[in-house]
Amino acid sequence: MKRFALLTLFAISLIAMSAQSSMQLATLFHDGDITTFYNANALKEAYAAAADGDVITLSSGSFAPTNLSTKKVTLRGAGMEDGPNRTVITGAVNLSVTPNMDNANVPMTIEGIYFGADFKMGAIADLTVIKCGFSNITTDMSGSVENCTFLHCLFKGGFIGFTNSVVDFKNCGFVSTALGSGSADVHNLDHCTIDVTGIFNRNCNYIECVLFGVAYSTIKSGGGDAYGCVYVGESENYFNGCSSAVNQKFPSDTQFLKEESLYYELTDEKAAEWLGSDGSQIGMHGGQIPFDTKTDRPQISRFNISSKTSPDGKLAVDIEVITN
Protein backbone atom coordinates (compact mmCIF):
# COMPACT_ATOMS: atom_id res chain seq x y z
CA MET A 1 0.00 0.00 0.00
CA LYS A 2 2.80 2.38 0.86
CA ARG A 3 4.55 1.62 -2.42
CA PHE A 4 1.34 2.29 -4.34
CA ALA A 5 0.92 5.59 -2.55
CA LEU A 6 4.48 6.60 -3.37
CA LEU A 7 4.03 5.69 -7.02
CA THR A 8 0.81 7.67 -7.15
CA LEU A 9 2.51 10.69 -5.58
CA PHE A 10 5.38 10.36 -8.07
CA ALA A 11 2.93 10.26 -10.99
CA ILE A 12 1.12 13.34 -9.70
CA SER A 13 4.47 15.13 -9.39
CA LEU A 14 5.34 14.29 -12.99
CA ILE A 15 1.99 15.61 -14.20
CA ALA A 16 2.48 18.82 -12.23
CA MET A 17 5.99 19.30 -13.61
CA SER A 18 4.73 18.72 -17.15
CA ALA A 19 1.92 21.22 -16.71
CA GLN A 20 4.27 23.82 -15.26
CA SER A 21 6.76 23.43 -18.10
CA SER A 22 4.05 24.05 -20.72
CA MET A 23 2.22 26.94 -19.06
CA GLN A 24 2.49 30.55 -20.12
CA LEU A 25 5.49 32.30 -18.70
CA ALA A 26 6.53 35.96 -18.35
CA THR A 27 9.87 37.08 -16.96
CA LEU A 28 10.38 40.62 -15.74
CA PHE A 29 13.90 42.05 -15.72
CA HIS A 30 14.17 45.02 -13.37
CA ASP A 31 17.40 46.53 -12.02
CA GLY A 32 19.30 43.26 -12.46
CA ASP A 33 16.60 41.13 -10.82
CA ILE A 34 14.40 38.58 -12.62
CA THR A 35 10.86 37.85 -11.47
CA THR A 36 8.80 35.06 -13.05
CA PHE A 37 5.02 35.04 -13.56
CA TYR A 38 2.94 32.05 -14.68
CA ASN A 39 -0.33 31.25 -16.46
CA ALA A 40 -2.54 33.30 -18.79
CA ASN A 41 -2.38 36.43 -16.61
CA ALA A 42 1.43 36.42 -16.55
CA LEU A 43 1.73 39.43 -18.86
CA LYS A 44 -0.82 41.44 -16.90
CA GLU A 45 0.97 40.73 -13.61
CA ALA A 46 4.44 41.39 -15.04
CA TYR A 47 3.36 44.72 -16.54
CA ALA A 48 1.73 45.77 -13.27
CA ALA A 49 5.00 45.09 -11.47
CA ALA A 50 7.21 46.74 -14.11
CA ALA A 51 8.72 50.21 -14.22
CA ASP A 52 9.66 52.39 -17.17
CA GLY A 53 12.56 50.85 -19.08
CA ASP A 54 12.06 47.28 -17.79
CA VAL A 55 12.10 44.21 -20.06
CA ILE A 56 9.27 41.65 -20.13
CA THR A 57 9.87 38.40 -22.03
CA LEU A 58 6.95 36.12 -22.88
CA SER A 59 7.06 32.44 -23.72
CA SER A 60 4.96 30.96 -26.50
CA GLY A 61 1.28 30.47 -25.72
CA SER A 62 -1.82 32.61 -25.27
CA PHE A 63 -1.90 35.49 -22.80
CA ALA A 64 -4.76 37.55 -21.44
CA PRO A 65 -4.64 41.17 -22.63
CA THR A 66 -3.50 44.11 -20.58
CA ASN A 67 -3.60 47.81 -21.35
CA LEU A 68 -0.12 49.15 -22.08
CA SER A 69 -0.95 52.60 -20.83
CA THR A 70 1.06 53.41 -17.71
CA LYS A 71 4.72 52.71 -18.50
CA LYS A 72 7.10 52.18 -21.41
CA VAL A 73 8.74 48.77 -21.42
CA THR A 74 10.46 46.40 -23.82
CA LEU A 75 8.00 43.58 -24.49
CA ARG A 76 9.34 40.50 -26.28
CA GLY A 77 7.46 37.40 -27.39
CA ALA A 78 8.53 34.12 -28.96
CA GLY A 79 7.24 35.07 -32.43
CA MET A 80 4.14 35.92 -34.45
CA GLU A 81 4.26 32.98 -36.86
CA ASP A 82 1.30 30.60 -36.61
CA GLY A 83 2.15 27.40 -34.73
CA PRO A 84 3.04 26.09 -31.27
CA ASN A 85 5.87 28.59 -30.78
CA ARG A 86 3.73 31.69 -31.32
CA THR A 87 3.05 34.25 -28.59
CA VAL A 88 -0.58 35.42 -28.76
CA ILE A 89 -2.40 38.12 -26.84
CA THR A 90 -6.01 37.03 -27.10
CA GLY A 91 -8.04 40.15 -26.26
CA ALA A 92 -8.12 43.85 -27.04
CA VAL A 93 -5.02 45.89 -26.15
CA ASN A 94 -4.80 49.66 -25.73
CA LEU A 95 -1.38 51.25 -26.19
CA SER A 96 -1.08 54.88 -25.16
CA VAL A 97 1.49 56.21 -22.71
CA THR A 98 1.29 59.85 -21.71
CA PRO A 99 4.81 61.34 -21.50
CA ASN A 100 6.01 62.32 -18.04
CA MET A 101 9.32 63.14 -16.38
CA ASP A 102 10.09 59.45 -15.78
CA ASN A 103 9.54 58.14 -19.32
CA ALA A 104 10.15 61.17 -21.56
CA ASN A 105 13.40 59.69 -22.91
CA VAL A 106 12.58 55.99 -22.49
CA PRO A 107 12.06 54.05 -25.76
CA MET A 108 9.40 51.36 -25.99
CA THR A 109 9.83 48.19 -28.05
CA ILE A 110 7.33 45.42 -28.84
CA GLU A 111 8.65 42.34 -30.64
CA GLY A 112 7.53 38.87 -31.69
CA ILE A 113 3.85 38.93 -30.69
CA TYR A 114 0.62 38.19 -32.53
CA PHE A 115 -2.28 40.38 -31.41
CA GLY A 116 -5.41 38.29 -31.94
CA ALA A 117 -7.95 41.03 -31.24
CA ASP A 118 -8.19 44.80 -31.64
CA PHE A 119 -4.92 46.63 -31.03
CA LYS A 120 -5.67 50.32 -30.47
CA MET A 121 -2.91 52.91 -30.46
CA GLY A 122 -3.10 56.35 -28.94
CA ALA A 123 -0.46 59.01 -28.38
CA ILE A 124 3.04 57.71 -27.71
CA ALA A 125 6.66 58.62 -28.47
CA ASP A 126 9.76 56.58 -29.32
CA LEU A 127 7.98 53.32 -30.23
CA THR A 128 9.47 50.49 -32.28
CA VAL A 129 7.34 47.46 -33.22
CA ILE A 130 9.25 44.50 -34.68
CA LYS A 131 8.01 41.21 -36.19
CA CYS A 132 4.46 41.50 -34.87
CA GLY A 133 1.17 40.43 -36.42
CA PHE A 134 -2.09 42.35 -36.07
CA SER A 135 -5.51 40.86 -36.76
CA ASN A 136 -7.00 44.35 -36.47
CA ILE A 137 -5.18 47.58 -35.65
CA THR A 138 -6.93 50.88 -35.03
CA THR A 139 -5.74 54.26 -33.85
CA ASP A 140 -6.97 57.26 -31.96
CA MET A 141 -7.16 59.81 -34.78
CA SER A 142 -6.99 62.68 -32.30
CA GLY A 143 -3.68 61.43 -30.90
CA SER A 144 -0.18 61.90 -32.24
CA VAL A 145 2.94 59.77 -32.23
CA GLU A 146 6.59 60.72 -32.43
CA ASN A 147 9.46 58.56 -33.67
CA CYS A 148 7.33 55.50 -34.44
CA THR A 149 8.60 52.64 -36.63
CA PHE A 150 7.06 49.29 -37.63
CA LEU A 151 9.55 46.71 -38.94
CA HIS A 152 8.68 43.26 -40.38
CA CYS A 153 5.04 43.47 -39.28
CA LEU A 154 1.86 42.06 -40.82
CA PHE A 155 -1.45 43.95 -40.77
CA LYS A 156 -4.73 42.24 -41.62
CA GLY A 157 -7.39 44.85 -40.92
CA GLY A 158 -8.29 48.20 -39.40
CA PHE A 159 -6.81 51.64 -39.97
CA ILE A 160 -3.69 53.54 -38.95
CA GLY A 161 -4.02 57.29 -38.83
CA PHE A 162 -3.02 60.05 -36.44
CA THR A 163 -2.76 63.82 -36.39
CA ASN A 164 0.51 65.70 -36.99
CA SER A 165 2.44 62.45 -36.96
CA VAL A 166 5.04 60.69 -39.08
CA VAL A 167 5.05 56.87 -38.99
CA ASP A 168 7.60 54.68 -40.77
CA PHE A 169 6.91 51.15 -42.05
CA LYS A 170 9.83 49.02 -43.24
CA ASN A 171 9.38 45.63 -44.95
CA CYS A 172 5.80 45.19 -43.78
CA GLY A 173 2.73 43.55 -45.34
CA PHE A 174 -0.80 45.00 -45.43
CA VAL A 175 -4.21 43.63 -46.35
CA SER A 176 -7.53 45.41 -45.71
CA THR A 177 -5.74 48.08 -43.68
CA ALA A 178 -6.36 51.77 -44.30
CA LEU A 179 -3.44 54.15 -43.85
CA GLY A 180 -3.57 57.86 -43.14
CA SER A 181 -6.26 60.07 -41.72
CA GLY A 182 -6.15 63.82 -41.76
CA SER A 183 -3.97 66.89 -41.64
CA ALA A 184 -0.20 66.62 -41.52
CA ASP A 185 -0.31 62.84 -41.09
CA VAL A 186 2.46 61.15 -43.08
CA HIS A 187 3.13 57.44 -43.58
CA ASN A 188 6.43 56.36 -45.13
CA LEU A 189 6.37 52.83 -46.52
CA ASP A 190 9.77 51.43 -47.51
CA HIS A 191 9.88 48.01 -49.25
CA CYS A 192 6.35 47.03 -48.25
CA THR A 193 3.68 44.90 -49.93
CA ILE A 194 0.15 46.34 -49.86
CA ASP A 195 -3.24 45.04 -50.96
CA VAL A 196 -5.01 48.32 -51.72
CA THR A 197 -8.39 46.79 -52.60
CA GLY A 198 -11.11 49.21 -51.55
CA ILE A 199 -8.81 51.02 -49.11
CA PHE A 200 -8.15 54.74 -49.28
CA ASN A 201 -4.51 55.34 -48.36
CA ARG A 202 -3.97 59.00 -47.57
CA ASN A 203 -0.69 60.91 -47.22
CA CYS A 204 1.42 57.82 -47.93
CA ASN A 205 4.86 57.84 -49.52
CA TYR A 206 5.83 54.51 -51.12
CA ILE A 207 9.45 53.55 -51.76
CA GLU A 208 10.05 50.42 -53.86
CA CYS A 209 6.80 48.81 -52.77
CA VAL A 210 4.53 46.25 -54.43
CA LEU A 211 0.88 47.37 -54.52
CA PHE A 212 -1.99 45.31 -55.88
CA GLY A 213 -5.79 45.12 -56.00
CA VAL A 214 -8.64 47.45 -56.92
CA ALA A 215 -7.39 50.93 -56.13
CA TYR A 216 -9.81 53.39 -54.54
CA SER A 217 -8.01 56.39 -56.03
CA THR A 218 -4.63 57.49 -57.31
CA ILE A 219 -1.68 57.83 -54.95
CA LYS A 220 -1.31 61.52 -55.67
CA SER A 221 -4.95 62.32 -54.99
CA GLY A 222 -4.43 60.92 -51.51
CA GLY A 223 -1.64 63.39 -50.88
CA GLY A 224 1.17 60.85 -51.32
CA ASP A 225 3.93 59.92 -53.74
CA ALA A 226 5.67 56.81 -55.06
CA TYR A 227 9.17 55.93 -56.21
CA GLY A 228 10.31 52.68 -57.83
CA CYS A 229 7.03 50.88 -57.13
CA VAL A 230 4.97 48.28 -59.00
CA TYR A 231 1.16 48.27 -59.10
CA VAL A 232 -0.80 45.21 -60.27
CA GLY A 233 -4.43 46.04 -61.01
CA GLU A 234 -6.91 47.77 -63.29
CA SER A 235 -6.46 51.40 -62.23
CA GLU A 236 -4.79 52.87 -65.31
CA ASN A 237 -3.82 56.18 -63.70
CA TYR A 238 -2.70 54.90 -60.30
CA PHE A 239 0.72 56.60 -60.49
CA ASN A 240 -0.47 59.75 -62.27
CA GLY A 241 1.10 62.87 -60.81
CA CYS A 242 3.83 61.03 -58.88
CA SER A 243 7.24 62.70 -58.98
CA SER A 244 9.02 59.60 -60.29
CA ALA A 245 8.68 57.98 -63.71
CA VAL A 246 10.25 54.67 -62.61
CA ASN A 247 6.98 53.25 -61.23
CA GLN A 248 5.50 50.38 -63.24
CA LYS A 249 1.95 49.10 -63.80
CA PHE A 250 0.86 45.57 -64.74
CA PRO A 251 -2.61 44.13 -65.49
CA SER A 252 -4.55 42.40 -62.73
CA ASP A 253 -4.08 38.92 -64.24
CA THR A 254 -0.29 39.16 -63.79
CA GLN A 255 1.01 36.23 -61.73
CA PHE A 256 3.42 37.81 -59.26
CA LEU A 257 2.91 36.09 -55.89
CA LYS A 258 3.89 32.52 -55.14
CA GLU A 259 0.92 30.21 -54.72
CA GLU A 260 -0.14 29.68 -51.08
CA SER A 261 2.51 32.11 -49.89
CA LEU A 262 1.80 33.24 -46.33
CA TYR A 263 3.95 36.34 -46.57
CA TYR A 264 3.43 37.75 -50.06
CA GLU A 265 6.56 36.26 -51.61
CA LEU A 266 7.18 37.17 -55.23
CA THR A 267 7.58 34.42 -57.78
CA ASP A 268 11.18 33.71 -58.72
CA GLU A 269 10.57 35.38 -62.09
CA LYS A 270 9.23 38.63 -60.62
CA ALA A 271 11.79 38.68 -57.80
CA ALA A 272 14.49 38.71 -60.47
CA GLU A 273 12.65 41.22 -62.67
CA TRP A 274 11.25 43.77 -60.21
CA LEU A 275 14.41 45.22 -58.72
CA GLY A 276 15.03 48.29 -56.62
CA SER A 277 17.90 50.76 -56.63
CA ASP A 278 20.08 48.44 -54.53
CA GLY A 279 19.66 45.49 -56.90
CA SER A 280 17.37 43.51 -54.58
CA GLN A 281 13.70 42.80 -55.25
CA ILE A 282 11.13 45.42 -54.35
CA GLY A 283 8.44 44.69 -51.79
CA MET A 284 8.73 43.33 -48.27
CA HIS A 285 11.28 40.63 -49.12
CA GLY A 286 13.83 43.04 -50.60
CA GLY A 287 16.02 45.90 -49.49
CA GLN A 288 18.65 45.81 -46.77
CA ILE A 289 16.45 44.05 -44.22
CA PRO A 290 14.23 41.47 -46.01
CA PHE A 291 11.11 40.35 -44.16
CA ASP A 292 11.63 37.56 -41.65
CA THR A 293 9.33 36.26 -38.91
CA LYS A 294 12.09 34.85 -36.71
CA THR A 295 12.97 36.74 -33.55
CA ASP A 296 16.64 37.42 -32.91
CA ARG A 297 16.75 37.01 -29.15
CA PRO A 298 16.77 33.84 -27.00
CA GLN A 299 13.43 32.83 -25.47
CA ILE A 300 12.86 31.06 -22.15
CA SER A 301 10.74 28.01 -23.02
CA ARG A 302 10.87 26.27 -19.64
CA PHE A 303 11.43 27.63 -16.14
CA ASN A 304 10.79 25.13 -13.33
CA ILE A 305 11.71 25.61 -9.69
CA SER A 306 11.50 22.85 -7.13
CA SER A 307 8.97 23.37 -4.35
CA LYS A 308 11.58 22.70 -1.65
CA THR A 309 15.31 22.57 -1.13
CA SER A 310 17.39 19.42 -1.00
CA PRO A 311 18.83 18.13 2.31
CA ASP A 312 22.05 20.04 1.66
CA GLY A 313 20.14 23.31 1.19
CA LYS A 314 20.19 23.48 -2.62
CA LEU A 315 17.19 24.49 -4.75
CA ALA A 316 16.69 22.67 -8.06
CA VAL A 317 16.07 25.00 -10.99
CA ASP A 318 15.36 23.76 -14.54
CA ILE A 319 15.62 26.38 -17.31
CA GLU A 320 15.46 25.83 -21.07
CA VAL A 321 16.34 28.62 -23.49
CA ILE A 322 15.77 28.33 -27.23
CA THR A 323 17.02 30.48 -30.10
CA ASN A 324 15.51 30.69 -33.56
Low-pLDDT segments = 1-21
Number of strands: 26
Largest sheet, in brief, is: 11 strands, mixed
End-to-end C-alpha gap: 48 Å
Average predicted confidence as pLDDT: 86
Give the SSE order as H and E letters: HEEHEEEEEEEEEEEEEEEEEEEEEEHEE
| Shape label | globular
What percent of the residues sit in helical stretches (DSSP H or I)? 10-25%
Residue share in β-strands = 35-45%
Placed side by side, the strands forming the largest sheet appear as: 2-1-3-5-8-10-12-15-18-20-22
**Class inferred from helices and paired strands:** mainly beta
Radius of gyration: 23 Å
Discrete helix count: 3
If you had to describe this structure to a student in words, what would you say it looks like?
Residues about 1-20 have low confidence and may be disordered. The chain is mostly beta strands. A hairpin with a 2-residue loop joins strand 1 and strand 2 (about 35-40). About 10% of the residues lie in helices and about 35% in strands. It contains three helices and 26 strands. An eleven-stranded mixed beta sheet has the order 2-1-3-5-8-10-12-15-18-20-22, with helices on one face. Strands 4, 6, 7, 9, 11, 13, 16, 19, 21, 23 and 24 form an eleven-stranded parallel beta sheet that branches. The radius of gyration is 23 Å and the shape is globular.
